[in-house]
Task: inverse folding
């Protein structure tokens, strides 16, 4: 994600909190291999959209998961206690 490449992943954990399907990355149901295959076909056929989603994901990752944001969250947690 940090390289700006499109990401295809199952929607597990808190990924859905930080990233939006078909805007920042592509989700598929984790037990559905056909859904994964369909996602990969879609990405292959829609390169412009896939490139845009990859760039969006990179921006979202920096905004939500970068060291600056992580440091702010950590400091907020420390100062609460």
Result:
């Amino acid at each position: 994600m940090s390289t700006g490449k499109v990401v295809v992943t199952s929607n597990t954990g808190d990924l859905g909190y930080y990233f939006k399907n078909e805007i920042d990355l592509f989700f598929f149901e984790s037990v559905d291999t056909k859904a994964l295959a369909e996602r990969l076909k879609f990405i292959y056929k829609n390169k412009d959209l896939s490139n845009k989603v990859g760039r969006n994901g990179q921006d979202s990752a920096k905004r939500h998961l970068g060291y600056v944001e992580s440091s702010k969250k950590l400091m907020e947690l420390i100062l609460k206690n």
About this structure: The helical segments are 15-18, 33-45, 47-65, 67-80. The chain has one domain: 8-80.
